[in-house]
Design a protein that fits this description.
The protein is built from one helix and seven strands; from the N terminus they run H-E-E-E-E-E-E-E. With 85 residues, the protein is mainly beta.
């Protein structure tokens, strides 16, 4: 099974652009639509259980279970499967 960490590391190390241009949409309660988009350039570390995001001089740990979509431009690289009812 390919994990979110695997995808981010592949983009970071294999893609010519690296994480630049990548967008990671996360669940962020209280934000409009409960979502926030993290620019790939803000991802400082792809750790085993979470990514470290550095924005405006502050570091934030984002657990991978909050990731909803990973995309580059109009191309969706990964999308969380909807919950079955």
């Amino acid at each position: 099974m390919v994990t979110i960490r695997d995808i981010l590391n592949r983009e970071k190390w294999v893609s010519k652009a690296g994480l630049a241009g990548l967008e990671v949409e996360i669940l962020h309660r209280g934000a409009p639509g409960d979502t926030k988009v993290i620019r790939g350039e803000s991802v400082a570390d792809v750790a085993p259980r979470a990514m470290l995001v550095r924005e405006d001089g502050e570091d934030t740990v984002i657990p991978y279970h909050r990731v909803r979509i990973i995309r580059r431009g109009d191309t969706v690289i990964w999308r969380k499967a909807p919950k079955e009812k």
